[in-house]
Amino acid sequence: MAAHKAMILSRTIILLSLKQHWSNPSSLSHWTPSSDHCTWPEIACTDGSVTRIAIINGSITETIPPSICDLKNLSYIDLQWNFIPGFFPTVLYNCSKLEYLDLSQNYLVGTIPDDVNRLSPRLQYLNLAANNFTGDIPASIGSLPSLVSLHLVANLFNGSFPPEIGNLSNLEELVLSFNAFAPQAIPSSFTKLKKLRNLWMTEANLIGEIPDDIGNMSALESLDLSVNSLSGNIPDGLFLLKNLTFLYLYKNRLSGPIPQRVEALKLQILDLSNNSLTGKIPDDFGNLTSLTGLALFFNQLSGEVPVSIGRLPQLVDIGLYSNNLSGELPPDFGRYSMLKRFQVSINQFVGELPKYLCANKVLLGVIAFENKLTGELPEYLGDCNSLEIVRVHDNQLSGKIPDGLWTSINLTTLMLSNNLFSGELPGSVGSQLSLLELMNNQFSGPIPAGISSWEGLTVFRASNNSLSGVIPQELTALPLLSTVLLDGNQLYGPLPSTIISWKSLTTLNLSRNQLSGEIPASLGLLPDLVYLDLSGNQFSGQIPTEIGHLRLSSLNLSSNRLSGRVPGEFENGAFGRSFLNNPGLCSNIQSLGISPCSAERRNSDKLSSKFIAAVSSVAAVAFVVAFLYTVYVCRSSESTWKLTSFQRLNFTETNILSGLTANNQIGRGGSGEVYRVPVNHSGEYVAVKRIWDNVRLDHKLEKEFLAEVEILGRIRHSNIVKLLCCISSESSKLLVYEYMENRSLDRWLQGKKDHIASQVQFIM
């Protein structure tokens, strides 16, 4: 009895020494000498002997001490989600009965030691995931004879993984994903792992072909080789694995046809997307009665979709977009399964959309744009409250939109452009609808007064339809609206004189209608408006001075009946085509392409003669001073430099040109210099990048440069530096940006000139 108590006391002392070594973390505050260590939740005992330690997320910040192996019967150690530092703990070599070791989600560094096989020969589970191990995985890891699970995911390995892993005859799980290995093919020895159920090597820098013998891995249930550079054909044997349940081969360089013989009838998820696969979809896919997700998008598949795929009873997600598929879509999609996501866009499909897509009331999205579909939208879509997105633009669809679709309670996106749809706009829509695109259809009738209830709408694009009537003031009540495109319709009458709530509006295009009356001054009070197009109408009167207060990057008032002088803010080259074909408009800036203002016009404001005389005297003196200063500083004729502004400016090109001195230079890049230029006496600065000095651009490059500058000028985003203006001559281009402190801007400007493209891809 005394000996037994001594042994218990000894084990308690060992555990308390561990606690002390780990700086007494609060998570172990209940480890006290007066309590029975076998009752502590982190400890498991067998006949009083400690066999298990599991301290998960216990805020351990110290290394593992050698004393842990003084617990002679310890077989299970789980210390995941701590902050354990240092190299691989070789002290664990002394835990001779260890069967389970989980050190994942810690701060371990360095390489896995070459003698890692000195760990207990009983070890079955080894998890070192989410640490910072580097170098190679040593070949000796293949000498742990009892190993069943090996998890090395998400480390910093930059060497190789050994073929000797194929010697682990008892291995059932092998996870090597998310490591930056040196480029390496899958060793053929891996196909000897007859008990392997899960092989995950996602994003592991794999190259070469998938081994042909992979069909011999009869126990394989889950295979993930996605996001690599694998090439060649998919081995025929892969689809003969009768236990295969999950197969992910997406985002590789696989080519050739999909094997047509499919006996892997347990498949639930099949993702072959983002490859270069050709040929047809196997008819045998229609036998995969357990399949919930099929992803074949971004390939070069052709032919028709087997009708039987539409009848799969478990199918939830189908993604076939961006292929060369043709023929009619299987009519039973959604009829026999709880279909949620239907994505077949960018193909050559003809005929109608399947009418049962929402038969089971769980459909989230219909993505079928850029096909050759005809007929009307299925009536089922009008009774489908689960719908969140419908994109059927760029087809040949016709008829009216089902009433219930407009008002679907969860619908956020409805894109119907470039079809033959007809009918009138509804008085109400679903409260979640934020994006509505109806362009290039045959919608007619008035914009309903009930549009004021479309409160969630942010984008409304209805260009090139047959909408008629006046623009109701209720349209201006939508508080979230950022884009309104109503150009190319039959709208008439004056614009609403009062704007209720367009505080977020950035883009307004009402061109090519029959609108008349004066341009409302209230448009000039919209704080975020950057794009305004009222061209091709019958507006008359003067341009309101308030419009000049806007920070417009694009303005088009051409082809109207406007009169008077162009506001001074627009008298520069940036607005060279903004006022054409308004016989009554004038400006003394030749680049605007309209009539010069006569002296009679300039003095038509009915000011008192004394005030005019006083102002004229002051202006004359100021003009002489400014002229002499400009000649002295700039020494350049006005015709040499062209200023294109994208914001309201408090400086001229003279301020900029005079500041391009060596003292103001803050950097130099591959295409020019960067300057920090003062623009006034209050301490404000701008950053100027001078590019292509003394190099004349050909016409194509010049157009590309101006187009890119216009895009930059329209951007409004807190994380993107603001382009104020462009100043150009035949030999130089100056880009003028707002200046950012802490050198962030000059570093940004000195980088290579990249084309930034935003590709929006909907995958629900």
UniProtKB/TrEMBL annotation:
- Statement: the UniProt record of this protein carries the keyword DNA-binding: no
> NAD as a keyword?
no
Q: Which Pfam families match?
A: LRR_1, LRR_8, LRRNT_2, Pkinase
From the record, give the transmembrane residue ranges: 611-632
Instruction: Give GO terms for biological process.
Output: defense response; post-embryonic development; response to other organism
**GO CC terms on record?**
membrane
Q: Listed GO molecular functions?
A: ATP binding; protein kinase activity; receptor serine/threonine kinase binding
Top-rank lineage group of the source organism: Eukaryota
| Location(s) in or outside the cell | Membrane
Q: Which UniProt keywords apply?
A: ATP-binding, Glycoprotein, Kinase, Leucine-rich repeat, Membrane, Nucleotide-binding, Receptor, Repeat, Signal, Transferase, Transmembrane, Transmembrane helix
Q: According to its record, how does it sit in the membrane? A: Single-pass membrane protein
- Indicate which residues the UniProt annotation says bind ATP: 689
- Principal subcellular localisation of the protein: membrane
- Domain (Protein kinase): give its ranges: 660-764
Cross-referenced PANTHER family = LRR RECEPTOR-LIKE SERINE/THREONINE-PROTEIN KINASE-RELATED, RECEPTOR-LIKE PROTEIN KINASE HSL1
Report what the protein is called: Leucine-rich repeat receptor-like protein kinase TDR
Q: Which organism is it from?
A: Sesamum radiatum (Black benniseed)
